[in-house]
Amino acid sequence: MQKLDYRRRLVLCGGMLGAVVACAALGAEAFGAEEVVRTPLPDGNPFPISAAVTVPAGFDTVYVSGALPSAINKDAPKGTPPEYGDMQAQTVSVLTSIKGTLAKLGLGMGDVVKMTVFMVADPANDNKLNFPAWRAGYTQFFGTADQPNKPARSAVQVAALVAPGALLEVEVIAAKPHPQKMRTSKPH
After folding, report:
1. Distance CA 15, CA 149 (A)
2. Residue ranges of the alpha helices (H) in 38-129?
3. pLDDT tens digits for the chain (188 residues)?
4. Chain centroid to CA 3: how far?
5. Residue 30 DSSP label
6. Which of 20, 122, 138, 143 is spaced 20 to 30 Å from 109 by Cα?
7. Contacts with 77 (C-beta within 8 Å, 6 or more apart), sequence order
8. Where are the alpha helices (DSSP H) in 27-86?
9. Does domain 33-182 have CATH number 3.40.50.1000?
């Protein structure tokens, strides 16, 4: 009788082990964790950010270092905002650089889940942040018909940046599906 109980236990344990292996092989899709979830701002607020972004199991997070604008005006005095352009031009420069970095990793701007923006006061804007110009550049990359995904985002004013004349620095975190998930994920 004890042999029979031992055999039943062995079969039961083998079945449970098989189920665990099968679930692991199926990946996160088996449990409904297929997509990054972007929670919109409350009350239909159209501001182009998400209130929160949830990255499910089965994704890697990619941390992209802060990017500064590229110089566009070689005749401007070094270390001045005109060397890099106005806030909108600098924003487009920085986000274009980030887009290029993400592309090298097989990602796009739609994969960005978190963004931190560091800005300095703009001498051309009465030494205040030029947030409308920032937003004009930002909305060319996020919340568009071609790329509707919006990251969670923080924007802070700082006293200075490492590059004199730069008005902003941006860092992002992107989410990349694990390779086995990539076959079933929707394009971004």
Report:
1. 42
2. 81-84, 87-104
3. 555 565 555 444 444 444 443 444 444 444 444 899 999 999 999 999 999 999 999 999 999 999 999 999 999 999 999 999 999 999 999 999 999 999 999 999 999 999 999 999 999 999 999 999 999 999 999 999 999 999 999 999 999 999 999 999 999 999 998 876 554 444 45
4. 57
5. G
6. 122
7. 83
8. 81-84
9. no
